[in-house]
Design goal:
This protein is mainly alpha-helical. It is 68% helix and 0% strand. Helix 4 packs across helix 5.
């Protein structure tokens, strides 16, 4: 058996942080096919996919060196989420992904839906859904209520306004502020690892 495979990811991370550059190379080699495969399946341009792949590991290195990595045992899902966020950034920069618009049907999970439903995308989807559900608890109750009614119950804003006894404009405003606050929390927690 290859001895590199027997070393845990947590141990490789510790070795890397202690100055062993080869430990990072082992981590990258262990997962590069899955990560690059995921990126190229979304971007479908080898050169751009290679750029996103490199950017992914630059963010991994920066996060590790800043001591911000704390997902022991979940290295691959964490890196896949970074890659996923960079793919989204790529499409946003190229205006190929619609921005959130509270006037049309809103689905916070639309960016993580995948026709192929492979293992990697399922891991990412489950992790992001878990993150979002826990983050919703930190919103003010009126904003959380509107967001949950919209996402989980698929109520129209007219229905939300009626059920919460407010005007449609107030319901829309609460949704808007809920999204703004959710994005702030996500950025503060470094859940979406993008440099603004």
């Amino acid at each position: 058996m290859d001895s590199a495979k027997t070393i845990s990811e947590a141990e490789l991370i510790r070795k890397y942080l202690s100055g062993d550059e080869k430990a990072l190379a082992q981590l990258i080699n262990r997962h590069k096919h899955k990560i690059f495969g995921f990126i190229i399946s979304k971007i479908q341009d080898r050169n751009l996919a290679e750029d996103v792949f490199q950017d992914t590991f630059i963010k991994v290195i920066n996060t590790l060196k800043r001591g911000k990595y704390n997902e022991e045992g979940k290295f691959l899902p964490w890196v896949m989420r970074i890659a996923h966020n960079l793919v989204i950034d790529h499409f946003r920069k190229n205006n190929r992904m619609p921005k959130f618009d509270t006037k049309s049907d809103f689905d916070i999970f639309s960016v993580i839906q995948d026709e192929e439903r492979n293992v990697e995308s399922s891991i990412i989807k489950n992790q992001i859904e878990t993150d979002v559900k826990s983050l919703l608890k930190e919103l003010p109750s009126d904003q959380r209520q509107v967001l949950e009614m919209r996402i989980y119950n698929e109520y129209s804003f007219k229905e939300i306004a009626y059920k919460t006894d407010v005007s449609i404009n107030t319901a829309l405003g609460r949704m808007r502020y809920a999204l703004i606050n959710l994005r702030k929390i996500i950025e503060e927690r470094n859940i979406i690892l993008t440099e603004k």
